[in-house]
Amino acid sequence: MLVGIPLEQSNSTIKPKECATEMSDYLVAVADTRCKRSFARVFNYFAPRLRSYALKQMGNEALAMELVQDTMSNVWQKAHLFNAEKGSPSTWIFTIARNIRFDMLRKLQNRKENVCSDDLWPVLCEQTADANEAPLDEQVTLEQIGYLFESLPVKQKAVVEAIYIDGKSQQEVADELSIPLGTVKSRTRLALQRLKVMLNDND
Prior knowledge:
69% of the residues lie in helices and 0% in strands. It is built from 10 helices and no strands. It has helices spanning 16-33, 36-58, 61-78, 89-110, 117-120, 122-127, 142-150, 154-164, 170-177, 181-201. α1 packs across α2 (36-58). The longest helix is centred in the N-terminal third of the chain and has 23 residues, at 36-58.
């Protein structure tokens, strides 16, 4: 039952590498034997984090819970696709969540509701706001967004994913990538500017 999912707690004593290894093992068990106990462990660990992410990105409890449910259902069904050599459980699961969020926004768009770039990158737009820059308020389709996002340079894309998908602050990204905070800000700004140019070119 999803209603009782708490928000993510930041005081976990589990080390990231240990947690990644543990969750990887659980996912393998789910894939190989459809182990419900292992899936419960994965669910209990990621559901609160997914809920926190969804609430931040969507600002709606009902939509957030729908995203959690759909994401974890996909994890159960597609556990065999997880490959620890290609990425951590967190990266894999939050990529699923991002894709589901895009699908949810696409459904809203199909109901004649406009979606703008600010809806897709609220955290980025907030953190890179500049009084001298025009807001990114062009109306776009989600197909354009997904395609153009994949076209970003690797370094810019990595920063965007860290902030948007993982919900990290620019300082956290700088610490994680061992680069200056100014570099994170410039890569983020360049990514948004590049997206704006590509959106204009696709008009």
